[in-house]
Amino acid sequence: MKRTHLFTGAALLLTSAIALAQQGPESILPPGFDKPAAKPAAKPAAPAAAPAAGQAAGAATGASQAASSGTGTAPVALPSNLPSLDKLQSMTPEELAALLGNKPKVDMPSGAGHALKRMGVIDESEGGLPAWTLSHQDASLVGAILAGNNGRIISRWGHILLRRALASRLDAPVGMHPADFVALRTALLVRMGEGEAARALAQDIDTSNYNPALTQAAIDAYVLTADYGGACPVVIWQGGARKDSQWKALQAICNAFSSNGTKGMGQLDRLGPGGGLEQIDLLLTQKYAGAAGRAQRAVKIEWDEVADLTPWRYGMALAVGIEPPAKLVSGAPAYVRGMAATIPAASLQSRAASADVAGANGVLSSAAMVDLYSQIYSGGGSDEFADRATALQSAYLAAAPADRLSAIKQLWGDAGAPQYYSRQVLTAYAAARLPVESSWSADAPGLIASMLAAGLDANALRWGSVVPDGSEGWALLALVQPVRRGDVTADQINTFHGNDKSEESRKTAFLVAGLAGLGRLPKTSAADLAQKYDFTLDRPSRWTALIDKAAEVGNPTLVALLAGVGMQGTGWDKMTARNLYHIVAALDRVGLSAEARMIAAEAVARG
Prior knowledge:
This protein has helices at 53-69, 85-90, 93-99, 139-147, 156-167, 178-191, 195-202, 212-224, 232-238, 245-256, 261-269, 279-290, 311-319, 326-330, 334-337, 348-361, 366-379, 384-397, 401-412, 420-426, 428-432, 444-453, 457-460, 472-480, 490-499, 506-517, 523-532, 542-552, 556-566, 577-589, 593-606. Residues 1-73 have low confidence and may be disordered. The chain has 31 helices and no strands. The protein folds into two domains: 124-346 and 469-606, no CATH class; 347-467, no CATH class. By secondary structure, it is mainly alpha-helical.
């Protein structure tokens, strides 16, 4: 059978506009202080008087005699800690440069370096957040917000918003060194599993401006993307600044990939376990470095004694074409399990398995997941991934709409399965292509949730005519409507609660919180419903005070960062109605209404 690309329909784009409230701050300096006067040009030095002919001849003769006799020359100063000749011969060029106090030559034209301001990869004109929004914030507060976030964001849309804020071109807070500001943002992106974004952010700073914190954050980003060779500019510039095993292993890799494979392998041979690297890590590194040249050797990798899967060993294994045991992969943290989804060296099967994590978390878009399964479909095969790709093809191109719906539901699987939501992300555009049928009202909540996972709110709203009041489909649409005429009533909420099968009526609590945050349910009604159904909608805390204040002054970046703090957890059972209410209300107030609506709807769909 001739295989065709899955994505033959026109792209369906997010229709919600995102507006940013509040203008940039005005200067508070006295007139003229923000435009300093130009410094006067330095006067040229007066030319030295030319020596007389006799003096010149005498000087030339003296220099010639000194050169021939070996006298009159200045002695060469050598370091007091000069190693032995054997040690010198074994040192790398970077170590020699560090010993002699030299830095690697950087062939960069004057003025071509990156300024330490507006650091990031998404400009405001490209959808980034305003550059000034953190510049006048308390540096210790911003630092605590960034360092205190563990990166496990329960909401896909919350993850996407936080990534956008961290990757935006931003000025550092006054009192925080720009390199530290980028290091904190890069490290948080790494903890979120956003290796590509973290790497791009770190690369926006010239290596010569790195400090130890940014160096480590950048190395972590390169490791998370299995781009060990990409770390070489950092490693070469820093030279012998670090002595840990990971650093020395990277130095060996850089030597191996710069046509000095024998020396690189020799460095690895002298490197014993420790400093963050175990025996399995060294063996994988030897296999990786050996692939760079003629210094290849047989390296046997055994996983029997390996207890866990770190980013270094998982990335190394994938880079050399080795699949770690499934039990190690399944037991790894989510950000590690999601690594393979974006590593080109990984097999399509590994990337597809990893996509179930990366898709649900927000690392992968729906379009990226479809493209991945398109490649699997084109390659044929008979495993579970090929079967899934065939089902996805049917979800898009089956002749009968009922057959397309059947394929979509087949891909979802059981509602309680871990991959259920990621498969809804996968089928978002297929769901958007289905016709609205009143006979499918029971399937409408899943279809609407699938479309909203990719931001297809306009397509989802078409189903408003077939979802009854009080149903889950009705609740999702009540939250995502860009503009709603009239408030939601308590009677409609009570009907929804009667149909709510979630644990402790969590969906009802989230619905009330989301509607109240968007201003679609009067506060008095929301408070009464919270008391009636035994959940807390509003209780003062340090975090609520901060996010409310950030919203009051119209600071979208600070609100986004604080929202990320409030969405940490391992699942939606960790989210509270109170946190959701303040997050949605603050985002809506600072012009991030599209994100506010999507997060609120996701909470109900996944609660």
